[in-house]
Each structure stands twice: as structure tokens, then as C-alpha cells.
């Protein structure tokens, strides 16, 4: 579904993404791991159109989408969430979801004045869709709370809910576990798995919690210093010498190996 070809993103002399090549298969939940500063979020930002690449290509369903702005990618079904949730804090959770669908009739003054019946019918349908999403995510009980008042984990669920308000094809999730307690993280994991299995969503997930990655992701891709270091099943990647070295450093890796050898 997504193919990244020799992608570079430089900031002056710093190569945040340095020739990354990878593929995200349709219907997969692909995990993207790597130490801090590996270039994972920058890669997401380039794919999702928030940053232009220095060079390289991004291909979606056979179409070159390199450098397209986020709103055009959104219309094609490519969505991205953030490590820090971006909610409208003074609006309710339900209203946050209802804001997502584009080209709503009530957005124009003409329709607001002269097509009130059409606007009302459309708003009722969007509200019903939002309530369905809230029920799917098991957060109906916070529907009428201000989004700025809910917990960090609940905000992550609301961000996931936004992707359900449109016809998402692929969703890039950036550190869904950051600041989230284990119970809510399990709820988020359940929702991702259900969306993948029941609705055919494709996901790419950045996450440092390897238990979470192991539970939901296959395959897993590891980045380091802007490059793709390894890819495969979670066990293959976790046991790859290059991955161990990227996370632990050569000295600590050798120390662990020595301790294991001496029992």
C-alpha cells in the first residue's frame, strides 16, 4: 500500500532520514521501532505531507504522492496521529469527532441560512456516526465531557476515533503509548486490532513499548540514524545484532553477552 524509496530528509547538515526504503503492506499492522533520534517521526511527517523530502519517493497504491499536502493525502485516506494529542479542548469529545468529516453543508453561510433542513439531516447523520465510534472505542461515557478535561490515554482514543469518522485506508500512529496507563493502552491495542480485522484498516505504529509492539504488530521495522536497520517478525528484529547494538551500544551489548556466557 505504501512504498518508500530511498527517502532523505535533511535539516542543514543533519540527515534525519538518510536513504530509508521500506514497504507497508495493505492490511498489515506494521511496527516502527528504533532509539530516540532514529528518524521515525520525521519519516512519518514526510510520508504524511507535513515535511517535504530532500529526495526520494513515497508511493501509495501505485500513485506517486511525494510531497502532497496533508489535506490531499487525507482525502486519499492517509491519516496521521501525533505523540501529543491535538484535541479541541473547549469542545466535547463528541464534537471533536463531528468536526472531522470535510465539506459539511453547514460550513457555508448560504446553506446555514437557506438549506437548514439539509444541514440538520447531515448533522444528525454525523452525530450518529460519532456515537457509533464512541461505542466502538468503549468511551461513550465521556462523550459530553470537554476534550481538554479527559486523560491522555482517552485523548489517544479520541484521535483514533477521528480516523474512523472518514474512510481511512492507512493510519500512522505516533507513540500511542506515550503517557498512557496499561489499562488504556490495552484498550487502544484492542481497538487497533479490531479496526484492522473488522474494517480492513492498515496501520503503521511508532512505539517504544515492545510488549505492545509484540502484541499487535507484524512485521516490525527498526530504524537507526535515519536508515532502515532491520525488518521481519518482532522476534527476528529483537534478536538482530544490529538492532541490539543500536539500542544498547556495542559496550553494553558485549557486557550482556559476557554475563550470559558465564551464567
Rg from Cα = 20 Å
Distance between the termini: 46 Å
The CATH superfamily name of the largest domain is P-loop containing nucleotide triphosphate hydrolases
Q: What proportion strand?
A: 15-25%
Q: Any idea of the CATH topology of the largest domain?
A: Rossmann fold
Order of helices and strands: EEEHEEHEHHHHEHEHEEHH
Range of helix content: 40-55%
Strands in their spatial order, largest beta sheet: 6-7-8-3-9-10
Uncertain stretches of 5 or more adjacent residues: none
* Strand element count: 10
- Which descriptor suits the 3D outline? globular
Mean of the pLDDT scores?
88
Our count of helices gives 10
The main β sheet shows up as: 6 strands, mixed
What class do helices, strands and sheet pairing give?
Answer: alpha/beta
Q: Into how many domains do the coordinates divide?
A: 2
CATH architecture tag of the largest domain: 3-Layer(aba) Sandwich
> Which CATH first-tier class of the largest domain would you pick?
Alpha Beta
Describe this structure in words.
The protein has 263 residues and is α/β, with parallel strands linked by helices. The chain folds into two domains: 172 residues, P-loop containing nucleotide triphosphate hydrolases (Rossmann fold, 3-Layer(aba) Sandwich); 76 residues, no CATH class. It has ten helices and ten strands. The strands form two sheets. Strands 6-7-8-3-9-10 form a six-stranded mixed beta sheet, sandwiched between helices. The protein has a four-stranded antiparallel beta sheet with strand order 2-1-4-5, with helices on one face. α6 runs parallel beside α7. The protein is globular. It starts with a strand and ends with a helix.
